[in-house]
Specification:
homodimer, alpha/beta, Rossmann fold, 3 domains, three-stranded antiparallel beta sheet, 13 helices, globular, tRNA_thiolation_TtcA_Ctu1 (chains A, B), ATP-binding (chains A, B)
Chain lengths: 304, 304
């Protein structure tokens, strides 16, 4: 975010700061981290995400968004544990572990690391070839599965930002995935076998998490995963462009969407048919969940 | 549109043609103009736009879209009259008149030309300064007003393409203009004082109108108006990018939108309060319509 000399709305002094167009607010760099955390707290309260005594699991990838939400919740006094899933995809994965470990040590946050290979032995690249699906899609599916399993009923906090949420919505509008639109909420309620998921950064942009990390001296993984791909990335770029052209437009769009969400809701057959996986208990529309089906396929493949 | 050697789905021969990703169809350049006109005819029927005996007024700007729709309807045997509104904005306007006159002479289409200054004497640039509104916005308002007045109850045909429609929808979704979304239809029904408006190109892209003009040897105004500006243009660019990244996505989005339109409909106060302008009879939410209010303002300004 571009900095310039501003009259800070919080402390009143004239110094280096930023202009936050979507709040119509100018804040100096000294006040920004406080403002950021206050904004997180307000979001948590607004959407009734959790209370001060709840224990939380934060999904910590090592990127700027998950680092920001972890730091903010820690400073706000919440009881958090960090959970890092490592995909062992070369240099970026190695760096992520280092960064996450250092950060949690400094911040005194309990950290659990799970490697994807603990769940499935074969590498993501190989699975991707066998299933003929992008690495990124397989990785996401496994991450959600492991996270849910490890959360053990605790609330899961993710670092999804306003940019992420709007990108999902726009993508699911362009392709009219009504059932996904109906589920696009800052809070995903607990369901039989699925933990509650909350997104305290849903009203905060990525430019803000970047600045927050910088001002809080947080080192984060800035390299993108070599396998990052797909439709979603295109929409993230479009959303970035829209917000650049019309500053503040995406927060208005998001708030307007939340008000209109019920319009998109149609009880899909998927919703009606959700049941527990016969093998592991994860929610699924079939007898076996996607991960157990994957494991079966891989076993068959292995045995020729 | 990029041409390449294709096996034409219509005539079966292997020759120079295009791949129309959103119909999943390959057509040679010889068959394309017939295909294009068939598509226009199907759209007219699908949305019950007009019958073979209706008399139509085509709004002919001179650009590729309005030229295409005029030529297609003429060749399909409809009874059309062309109507050109000239804004006298420099070279582009001069060129437009020439092009439109030549075209109508060759095609033997009755043409009526009206200059904006016949409605309002002061130049658009001056009005824009007085009202502190972009020239483009004032011009659009006056054009709609004149077109409606001249149509005298006949159905008005415009050259709005799929790209135009999707750009409007996306813009009105990002800013949640529900009342505009509710009106975004291929057919705008006649209302007390407002003519019926139809858009036979609403399922056709701009790449296709461009190719149709080229193959039909139609000269069109390719220069953009020097005053073209605003939010809408940004969305047109975005829509172009989306369709480039995901070929065929915008037609799916548009069709999905039309199915869901009623979800966006909320009877706005504007709808409820529409009445006839006390001065000219045009529909308005106030006592005087926007154009009569503009004229009053200009008169006051002139008299100091």
């Amino acid at each position: 975010m571009q900095t310039k000399r501003v009259r800070c709305k919080i402390c009143g002094s004239l110094k280096e700061g930023v202009s936050l167009r979507h709040y119509n607010l100018r804040v100096c760099l000294d006040c920004f981290p406080h403002f950021f955390k206050k904004r997180v707290q307000e979001t948590v309260e607004k959407f009734k995400m959790f209370g001060p005594k709840d224990s939380l699991i934060v999904a910590l990838s090592g990127g700027k968004d998950s680092m920001s939400v972890t730091k903010a919740l820690k400073d706000l006094g919440y009881s958090i544990k960090a959970f890092h899933i490592n995909a062992d995809l070369g240099e970026v994965s190695k760096k992520s572990i280092e960064i996450v470990q250092n950060f949690c040590e400094i911040e005194k946050i309990p950290l659990k690391i799970v490697h994807l290979k603990e769940e499935i032995e074969i590498s993501l690249e190989e699975i991707s070839k066998i299933l003929k699906k992008p690495v990124c899609a397989v990785c996401g599916m496994l991450r959600r599965y492991i996270l849910n399993k490890q959360a053990d009923g605790k609330t899961i906090v993710t670092g999804h930002t306003l940019n992420d949420e709007v990108s999902f919505i726009l993508k699911n509008m362009i392709f009219w995935h009504d059932e996904l639109l109906a589920r696009q909420s800052p809070v995903l309620q607990e369901k039989e076998g699925l933990s509650r998921k909350v997104k305290p950064l849903c009203l905060i942009t990525e430019e803000e998490t970047e600045l927050f990390c910088k001002l809080s001296n947080i080192t984060y993984v800035s390299e993108t995963c070599p396998y990052k791909s797909g439709v979603y990335e295109v929409f993230k770029k479009l959303v970035y462009e829209i917000n650049k052209e019309f500053p503040g437009s995406i927060i208005g769009f998001y708030k307007g969407f939340l008000k209109r969400m019920n319009k998109f809701y149609c009880q899909s057959s998927e919703e009606l048919l959700l049941q527990r996986c016969k093998n592991c208990g994860y929610l699924t529309t079939l007898e076996l969940c996607s991960v157990c089906r994957l494991k079966e396929k891989l076993l068959k493949y292995k045995n020729g």
